[in-house]
Every structure is written in C-alpha cells, then in structure tokens.
Hints:
- There is one protein chain.
- The protein has helices spanning 25-44, 56-69, 79-104, 140-149, 178-186, 217-227, 259-267, 276-289, 303-309, and strands spanning 8-13, 48-53, 111-113, 117-119, 132-138, 154-157, 163-167, 174-175, 190-192, 199-204, 207-210, 232-237, 242-244, 252-258, 294-299, 313-316, 323-324.
- 42% of the residues are buried.
- Strands 1, 2, 12, 13, 14, 15, 16 and 17 form an 8-stranded mixed beta sheet that branches.
- The chain has 9 helices and 17 strands.
- The chain has 325 residues and is of the alpha/beta class.
- This is Carbamate kinase.
- Pathway: Metabolic intermediate metabolism; carbamoyl phosphate degradation; CO(2) and NH(3) from carbamoyl phosphate: step 1/1.
Amino acid sequence: MINMTGRRIVVALGGNAILAKDASAEAQQRALQETARHLVNFVKEGDQLIITHGNGPQVGNLLLQQAAGSTETNPPMPLDTAVAMTQGSIGYWLQNALTTALAEQGLSSDVATLVTQVVVSDDDPAFTHPTKPIGPFYDLTAMQKINATHPEFEFVEDAGRGFRRVVPSPRPVDVKEAGVVKAMVNAGIIPIACGGGGVPVVSSHNQLIGREAVIDKDFASEKLAELVEADLLIILTAVDHVYVDFNQPTQRALTKVAIDELREYVTDGQFAAGSMLPKVEAAMAFVTHRPTGQAVITSLENLADYVQTGSGTVISSQALVTDYD
Length: 325
Ligand SMILES: Nc1ncnc2c1ncn2[C@@H]1O[C@H](COP(=O)(O)OP(=O)(O)O)[C@@H](O)[C@H]1O
Ligand SMILES: NC(=O)OP(=O)(O)O
C-alpha cells in the first residue's frame, strides 16, 4: 500500500470518466457517479483532492445545439462562453456525484465547482493552427455537408474513428483562480476547477477578455498542479499505462519512468499528438517544475491498483527505478 496520506493531488478526468457513447445528461451523471466512487478513496486516505476535467465532446455538442436553436434575438454564445457553460454543467454533475459518493463512505466534505479562467497569449501559434477535436465524429459525407454550410470550420481525421471539428488550443500561461483553488483546499473543500481546460482569456488593460478556443485539460491541469504546489498529478484516461510501440506486437507498458527516458520516446514519435502526447508532455512539465512530485497516467479502472501497488505509468524527474511490464 502506497502511503499517500495528506498529499495534495490534482486528478484530471479524461473523456471516458464522463461520457462513453450516450451523451444524455442521465448517462453522463451515471458515469460521473462511478468516477466519484473511485475518487473518494483518496479522501478516505486523508489526501487533499483537486479535480479537473475535459469537455471536448460536451462543448462541441453544445455549439451544435446553440447553432441549431439560434435566432436573431437569441444568438449562439461564443466558444469561451460555451466552455464556461460546460464547466457549470459538468461541475454540477460531478459536485453532486462526489457528495453522494462521500456520503456512501460515511465521509463528508464540501465540494464546489469554480468557474476558472486560464490566461493564454494572443501570440500563441495555436490561434492560426486549430488542433483540438471537439464534438461528435462524422463520416466523410457528413463532414463535407457541414463544411459546405460552414466553410470556416476545420476538420481532422481522428485516429481512424472519423472526422471531427478542430478549434484552436493555446497553451495555458496562468490560472487566474489558482489562489482561490489553494484557499479552498486549505479550508478542506474539494474544488472542481479548470473544467474543459479553463475558459481561455487574455489579459489586457486590467481586463480579462475571452478567446474562442479550447485549452487542453492536461496542460491546464499541469499548470494548476504547479501553481497550487501539488505533490501528485494524476491523469486518468482510457488506458492503464502509457505504452511504447502502442498497438503493435512489440507493445510494452511503461511503469516507472524518468523524464529523460520519456523525452527520448517523445522524440521517437511514440505518443500520438492530440491524445497521449499532451498527457506525457504535461506529466514531464509537472515533474520538471515540482522535482519532488510525481505524475501518474492510468485508467479509472486501475486507480485502486495504483493506490494499492503503484500500478500505472509513474513519471518522476529522475530515474528511481525504470522497468517494463
Ligand atoms: N503510446 C500510447 N500509449 C497509450 N495510449 C496511447 C498511446 N498513443 C495513443 N494512445 C491513445 O491515447 C488515448 C488517450 O487519449 P484521449 O482519448 O485523447 O484522452 P482523454 O482520456 O483525455 O479523452 C488512449 O486511450 C489511447 O487510445
Ligand atoms: N478541454 C479538453 O482537453 O477536453 P477533452 O479532454 O475532453 O478533449
């Protein structure tokens, strides 16, 4: 059993922790209820939890709903506002789910969702090169039909699963509410923050101005973890480990890995851009800024094993032990 008692942990929830196939509110609430039951184990151990989450499918779906129902007097909301709306909806579900899961274990803690603004730079090249997939997958015909009506939309083919709209995804520079998150944790509250990577804003003349983009939640979570001086950044996704030679006969799981070794795999093109690469980069950035900390990439299903045995991909600033499954 790993002793994690009293550690400050940022847990970033990936897509499958919220939405599998069914995008109804009920199905997402059910998925989050299951997720919350896993997360509560950390509270049981006495750890301080800060939860972040993605919003790619949800914010894309919301934009579609907005477009479908819009009129001259009821215009669609811009993307930054849509991100804030998904922070509210997912935060509401998760906050309730956690409260229930805590009660099931005889625990009680306040849980609160914080609308979080993440500062980005207007000079970020991402604004002219959209890469962040949002919303549903389309086949070629459906994608071409949408593109005929919306020539301004850009699409990419996403890992053999179809086409998805892409939007700019600038790197986080600062988390405006990091101090509030820290104060909440210090007061024993579980904050849900940086939802959907945070609302992208730029700072100008004492004002924060929204930008139409979706920040990668792994990078935003890393920035937050750094700013709140977390001990651990846990990135939950669909796979229990990061793999070298992923999906090939020579595939092997990385268990304990130092950043120098991981950097070589990045150079070698081992991690897919837009899926595993941002997670690996976020993990490397975290342990670079917090050399005494660790980053973990694993699945929700493997979380209990991680707590018991350290199973999962554990990234450290230095080679402690390096081995493969
Ligand atoms: N080298 C790799 N090791 C493990 N998974 C990989 C690798 N390269 C790509 N992947 C894929 O990346 C996915 C995680 O990215 P993604 O689905 O975008 O994350 P999220 O859970 O945040 O929505 C994994 O489920 C896996 O299919
Ligand atoms: N904002 C974000 O990174 O969302 P996903 O993790 O759902 O793609």
